[in-house]
Automatic annotation (TrEMBL), chain A:
<keyword id="KW-1133">Transmembrane helix</keyword>
<comment type="similarity">
    <text>Belongs to the binding-protein-dependent transport system permease family. LivHM subfamily.</text>
</comment>
<dbReference type="GO" id="GO:0022857">
    <property type="term" value="F:transmembrane transporter activity"/>
</dbReference>
<keyword id="KW-0029">Amino-acid transport</keyword>
<keyword id="KW-1003">Cell membrane</keyword>
<protein>
    <submittedName>
        <fullName>Amino acid/amide ABC transporter membrane protein 1, HAAT family</fullName>
    </submittedName>
</protein>
<feature type="transmembrane region" description="Helical">
    <location>
        <begin position="20"/>
        <end position="40"/>
    </location>
</feature>
<dbReference type="GO" id="GO:0005886">
    <property type="term" value="C:plasma membrane"/>
</dbReference>
<keyword id="KW-0813">Transport</keyword>
From TrEMBL, chain B:
<feature type="transmembrane region" description="Helical">
    <location>
        <begin position="27"/>
        <end position="46"/>
    </location>
</feature>
<feature type="transmembrane region" description="Helical">
    <location>
        <begin position="232"/>
        <end position="249"/>
    </location>
</feature>
<feature type="transmembrane region" description="Helical">
    <location>
        <begin position="131"/>
        <end position="149"/>
    </location>
</feature>
<feature type="transmembrane region" description="Helical">
    <location>
        <begin position="182"/>
        <end position="202"/>
    </location>
</feature>
<feature type="transmembrane region" description="Helical">
    <location>
        <begin position="306"/>
        <end position="328"/>
    </location>
</feature>
<feature type="transmembrane region" description="Helical">
    <location>
        <begin position="58"/>
        <end position="76"/>
    </location>
</feature>
<dbReference type="GO" id="GO:0005886">
    <property type="term" value="C:plasma membrane"/>
</dbReference>
<keyword id="KW-0812">Transmembrane</keyword>
<keyword id="KW-1003">Cell membrane</keyword>
Amino acid sequence: MADLVSYLQFVLAPQVVNGLALGMAVVLVALGLTIIFGLLDVINMSHGEFYAVGAFIALALGWLGLSFWLLLFLVPLLMIPFGVLTERLLIRRVYDGPDRHVTTLLLTFGLSLIIEELLSIVFGPNTQRPATPLRGAVELAGVYMPVYRLFLIGIGVVVILAVAWIVYRTRLGAMVRAAAYDRDMAGSLGVPVSLVYSGTFAFGLMLAGLAGVLLAPIYSVFPTMGRDFILIAFTVVIVGGMGSIWGAVVAGLALTQVQALAALVISPVWTDPIVFGVMVLCLMFRPQGLFGRLGHA
Amino acid sequence: MPERPARSFPGRPVADRLSLSMRASHLLVVLLVVAGLALAALGSALGDTFYLRLATEALIYAGLALSVDILLGYTGLLSLGQALYFGIGAYVSALTLMAVPSFWLALLAASGATLVAALIGGVIANRVRGVYFALITFGLAQVVAKVVYNTRELGASDGMIGVPVVEVPLGPFHVSTGSAPGFLLVALALLVLLYAVSAYLLDTPFGRVLIALKANERRVAFLGYSTWRARMAAYVLAALVAGLSGALYPMLRGFVSPELLYFQVSGNAVITVVVGGVGTLVGPIYGAILLTVLKSVIGSWTEHQLIVIGVLFMASVLFLPQGLIGLLRPRLARWLGRAEPPPAKAAEAEARP
């Protein structure tokens, strides 16, 4: 009995908390992806690379002496021009063409290659690690938890609530949902559809950039860092339902817990196959995802 | 006078626009064979091995790109994980060669393994369309790559080295996989064979069903065709093409590594197809050659070749949806079409008593 308690306390609990921190990270990346997918119907293959861009901007501005707390607000704002330009110059060009799913996917894939190379030209291919803004650990029920991970969990909750509030409770969010449901009808009712599209894409990238700032101190910064998150982020989007905010949150947190526990109970080697198995089962039996589409539910 | 059978009967296709484009593709493949023979002759005369091996690698990756094109160009399904079958072909071929050094046995084992894998993968991937298909193929390859990466019996992250050089018995001749010009010709022959079989199959009514699927899947089902079976057949065909191309890889390089299954390989194949020309079958082959040349030329100046390739790729998506071959082939097809009466007139001529 004592063994079980100490197992729960010293092995399982830290793993769950770590999984929760990772889950918040995944949710932040997946939120942007799912909003872009839900409204524009675009699989943004370069989303992971924009996450890396956010991390690198934070790194560079950190060298200039800007504080982490300022960057938390500044970097997402700096992502807006990237989002608007990408949507206006690239995605819009092929949006009404044939096979736009495939074309936009290919286009963002090409973009991801270019961004990755540009980052490695500018910053070099090596891994860099910004200093953790919150050092130390606190003791919770006899287990030491790094403060920064707890902070990450807290800020994740705040961001999720803010995004859900914007999408489901504001006029802006109503426009986005209307445009996702029926673009032409929304347009004829006075929703500035073109602006909504650019804005939504930029908003997705803002979230990616924010994830970059937040995760850089934990997972380090390197040009190909975006790749590590992309399979799990796509899985979260599919399982949660494309465009669904709550779907992304639930699926993101659940899947990372599955990962964390599988790593503990089975072996870290099998976490990816298990996550993928969930995605396959979901596509087979509930292709619309747990929560259905943005604007449709 | 007994009525003649309609000329659209299987095996005797009408010379319509599609067959003319195919014939233009065939002509470009003949050109490739001539160029390959010339290169092999030149290379062996100069005693070169580096460029011959590079050309062989281009042909092997051309096979992988061909496989992506069968799916993307004919069924409209984008596979982001075709490296899965390429890698399976390569690993099985390497394992077979290290146990029994026989070329044909290696090819047979590789195609058998690819067939089994494709049947399983196809059942999973063909439940979905569009972006979901792309993501599921991406995930499948990613997962198998991870498993291979962590399996000690398959060399884990290091892969397997020491694949022996074998003789390739071709009837009365013998070619060693160690001989650069000889193996270039073997790779060329296999590629042309894969091209010919794919082109033949895709020009039959089966191929037309696939093209119809791409245009309007629901209507194809209403016309009484099984869309699932057609898509599955295309998927397995594409996988076999990838697997057989992959089977040559360890013979060329003497090793296999999990990188062969990575997204970079799949992504490269997609780039090759788009730059070369989607749905042309010959486009991916020329695309692979072009990209290999580009990579080695740009690679001698800078290690950031991907930026050039990325820009070229995006430019193709935006401005050249038919790829480079799309610029060339319609002209060739028109020229070929002039050689015989246009189909409408031919039909008219037949209709006359």
